[in-house]
Design goal:
single chain; alpha/beta; eleven-stranded mixed β-sheet; two-stranded antiparallel sheet; 14% strand; flat
Length: 601
């Protein structure tokens, strides 16, 4: 791991739902403002894409989100020369990136306060670019839609002049809604151009690139920026995340995973049933702390350490893995060289999913619970309670919230929280969900510190340690404490289930079947058995895809000597309760295993 030096946040820019700048975003946080509402009519037509029935193909059962509004891109006002023909082809991700970067630079004092533009990097997190490339692709593929129309039997029965009129009308309607493809189209849509455009318009000559780690993209970008600052590849960096991917395409695809909520974002709370999508950007101007102090910069907060991990093998690709999360948190605090016992605030990933929130808080407790912190002493929150899940910009939104909190010494509230998630044992953990803005009391003998987490699809995890700026108190010393290493906790089904002797046995009890099924699912997903509710959906809640579900059924069938069935449809057994019911329906006394069966999941 690279040697971590303290990094200063010296400028912040943001464009968020109900907030056109960073200061208004923070004001909304303090007020507990909730930005989630139904899809605006100018974004997409719910009559075309919405159906409350999750089983209807190609439809979204959710029509709520947190939307950026009142944004106007005026490069002339910003004194940025961009031709109107180029602006017309620019995705809003690029426009937001430029505008938020301008905010962060202005917040720093630029251009009156200067820096070496040759040594300025631009590193941003983004996944899937924006929405514009979906629309232009629709225009390009228009001949295929026309072909599908003209090949229909009913169309061929129409008079030739009517056929021609229908085709022309269809083509004209679609082309009128989607801009013409020009030499500026591709550069206006590509993800990497978000960073490149910022470097271009401000004439920065350090490296620029975009990181994609799904929902952890922006913290991945911040980690890359920190590494470059630590190794003196550049002296200043614009880093953060941008996300505007709220079209019907994303809604339908997320709904088919079962990931979205139809009624609200409530991290760590009772009733959490999926995440709500949001959009926006947060961008930070970063410098080495020693340089920021030398230059007399306004310092919002100090990034003290950052850690990351991959989940590795042994679960569905989309399911959260507690071991991977713990490794990222552990590495961050070791990298920071400060004790986790000094934490006062955790800005969690907190997506408001049924399983994800529970896994996350248990993972936090595995790290922080080792330090004897009293229950109810560490504030826990998620900015997703205010603005939904910004996907690839989510970590940056959380970082902005924490930077302002540390600067103003206020513990910010988490919105939309009424009762705690009953599956989170807050009474025996140091965490509590803070619901009112309150003074952040300084811990005895320490300074105020916070952790920020962001976890992404594909098993990628990031955690950042951030602390308040106190002149003269931020050393660059090596770590002075240790955390017991996070051990891999794989559940072995063979040792969980009592071996069955080679004699005739009575038919299995429902409890015995449940015990085996839960142990098998625990081994495959990484979730502790005690967390597994029989109502959980194998794919939507636990990330067990079709392939792994087939492996799970093979394990269960072999253990109970249930013959393979050609007519078996895995979709009919999508919950743990239904899997247990399958075993009970197909088992008898003669079906019991004569010897223990090895399970290699």
């Amino acid at each position: 791991m690279f040697e971590q030096k303290p990094i200063a946040i010296v400028g912040i820019g943001a464009i968020m739902p109900d907030a056109t700048d960073a200061k208004l975003f923070w004001e909304n946080i303090l007020k507990g403002h909730y930005s989630v509402r139904e899809v605006p009519s100018d974004r997409w037509d719910t009559n075309l894409y919405f159906n409350s029935d999750p089983t209807v193909p190609d439809k979204s059962y959710s029509k709520i989100g947190a939307w950026v509004n009142q944004f106007e891109f005026n490069p002339i006002k910003l004194r940025i020369p961009i031709p109107p023909t180029v602006i017309a082809q620019m995705d809003l991700t690029q426009q937001w990136g430029i505008a938020a970067s301008h905010q962060a630079l202005s917040d720093y004092g630029y251009p009156q306060r200067t820096f070496d533009s040759d040594r300025m990097a631009v590193i941003l997190g983004n996944s899937n670019a924006g929405e514009r490339h979906y629309r232009t692709t629709m225009r390009i593929l228009l001949p295929e839609y026309v072909q599908a129309l003209t090949q229909s039997a009913a169309f061929k029965q129409l008079p030739a002049e009517v056929q021609q009129q229908l085709v022309e009308n269809m083509q004209n309607n679609i082309r009128s809604q989607i801009p013409e493809i020009t030499e500026d189209t591709m550069s206006g849509e590509l993800s990497n151009i978000i960073a490149g455009r910022i470097a271009n318009v401000f004439n920065f000559n350090g490296p620029n690139f975009v990181t994609d780690a799904a929902c952890a993209s922006s913290l991945a970008a911040i980690q890359a920026a920190i590494q470059g600052l630590n190794t003196h590849q550049y002296d200043t960096a614009l880093a953060g995340g941008v996300d505007r991917n709220m079209g019907p395409d994303s809604y339908v695809k997320f709904c088919k995973i079962g990931a979205l909520s139809a009624d609200g974002s409530r991290p760590y709370a009772e009733g959490a049933n999926g995440f709500v999508m949001g959009e926006g950007t947060a961008i930070f101007l970063l410098k080495r702390l020693v340089d920021a102090e030398r230059d007399g910069d306004k310092i919002y907060a100090v990034i003290r350490g950052i850690g990351s991990s991959s989940d590795g093998k042994g679960k569905g690709i989309t399911a959260p893995n507690p071991i991977g999360q713990q490794k990222a948190i552990e590495r961050a605090w070791k990298n920071a060289g400060v004790t986790p016992a000094s934490v006062g605030l955790i800005e969690g990933h907190g997506t408001s999913t049924k399983v994800g929130d529970v896994v996350e808080v248990n993972s936090l407790n595995e790290i922080f619970g080792k330090f004897g912190l009293p229950s109810g002493t560490v504030a826990l929150g998620s900015v997703k309670s205010n603005i939904g899940h910004l996907k690839s910009a989510a970590g940056a939104a959380g970082m902005a919230k924490v930077a302002f909190a540390l600067d103003q010494k206020i513990l910010p509230p988490s919105a939309n929280f009424h009762k705690p998630n009953p599956n989170i044992d807050f009474e025996h953990m140091p965490f509590y969900v803070n619901t009112q803005a309150r003074p952040w009391e300084k811990p005895a003998g320490e300074i105020r510190r916070a952790g920020v987490s962001s976890f992404g699809f594909g098993g990628t995890n990031f955690h950042v340690v951030v602390e308040e700026y106190v002149p003269g108190l931020h050393s660059e010393q090596s770590p002075v404490y240790s955390i017991p290493a996070v051990a891999s906790k794989e559940v072995n089904v063979e040792t969980t289930v009592t071996p069955v002797a080679a004699v005739s046995q009575p038919a299995p009890s429902n409890e015995a079947v449940k015990e085996f099924v839960l142990a098998a699912v625990s081994e495959k997903t990484g979730y502790p058995v005690e967390m597994l509710d029989v109502e959980l959906d194998l794919e939507a809640d636990l990330g067990v895809d079709t392939v792994k579900q087939a492996e799970l059924f093979r394990t269960i069938r072999e253990h109970h000597n249930i013959p393979r069935r050609e007519d078996l449809r895995l979709s009919d057994y999508n919950t743990l309760e239904k899997v247990i019911g399958f075993v009970m329906e197909n088992s008898s006394a003669d079906d019991q295993p004569a010897v223990p069966v090895a399970t290699n999941i």
